[in-house]
Amino acid sequence: KAGVTQTPRYLIKTRGQQVTLSCSPISGHRSVSWYQQTPGQGLQFLFEYFSETQRNKGNFPGRFSGRQFSNSRSEMNVSTLELGDSALYLCASSLEGGFTDTQYFGPGTRLTVL
Amino acid sequence: AQTVTQSQPEMSVQEAETVTLSCTYDTSENNYYLFWYKQPPSRQMILVIRQEAYKQQNATENRFSVNFQKAAKSFSLKISDSQLGDTAMYFCAFMKYYAGNMLTFGGGTRLMVKP
Predict the structure, then answer these.
(1) A106 and B106 in contact by Cβ < 8 A?
(2) Which chain B residues are closer than 8 Å to A88 by Cβ?
(3) pLDDT at position A96, please?
């Protein structure tokens, strides 16, 4: 079975631009979560999607948004990029979500904002 | 809101020895789950071990075991017979009961296993 894939792996943008990151979960997984990892703030939860609905949302500004498609693939969008948005963005998928499901993480997308 | 604290930013251990990573957390929840994740230099996060708060028995997965002290809100990870492949960042994480896949992570401990 293929693992969680994230595209692109690396991205360079300038302040004020917007960016879309993509996550393809493991086949059969319906829950997709997104996390931001930075040296200063560590790993922070962005949001979780399950069956095309946002089920949980972290404490991020409205510039961060996401969606999930019927095939469970998910995208996250960041508008009006700021320097502080430079981070590794991790996506994780699981069957249904919850304790008994193992979350499988993707390799991440490294976003650099100049 | 929950907070997770890992007080040891870096640790090192000799190959084949045992090392314990500390984690404390703060929550008003009574039912929750705790996890240890490993992030090797390749950056792919991997689940190491998980613990249900309502279970008093400590979880064990091969060389990895936890010491869960609910009253003290402490959740340490013990790695026995350390191997070079254990070199990684280790994150302690908290999940509320029936809250979907929303993890709160600690700041991480960088573990170096020396030959």
Answers:
(1) no
(2) 43
(3) 83
Say which amino acid occupies B108: G
Contact assignment for B104 to A107 by CB distance below 8 Å: no
How many residues can be counted in chain B?
115
> Higher confidence at residue A64 or residue A97?
A64
CA dihedral B58, B59, B63, B66 (to 10 degrees): -50
Closest CA to A32 of A83, A106, A87: A106
Question: Would you list the DSSP string of A26-51?
Answer: PTT--EEEEEEEETTTEEEEEEEEET
As a 3-state breakdown, chain A gives helix, strand, coil percent values, each rounded to 5, of 5, 55, 45
pLDDT digits (tens, 9 = 90+) for B51-62: 999 888 899 999
Residues of A with CB under 8 A from a CB of B: 31, 33, 35, 42-45, 48, 50, 55-56, 58, 88, 90, 92, 94, 97-99, 101-103, 105-108
Answer whether A105's CB lies under 8 Å from B45's CB: yes
Interface test with B, best of A10, A33, A43, A90 (most B CBs within 10 A): A43
Alpha-carbon distance of B27 to B25, in angstroms, equals 7
Residue range B39-52, pLDDT digits in tens: 998 778 999 999 99
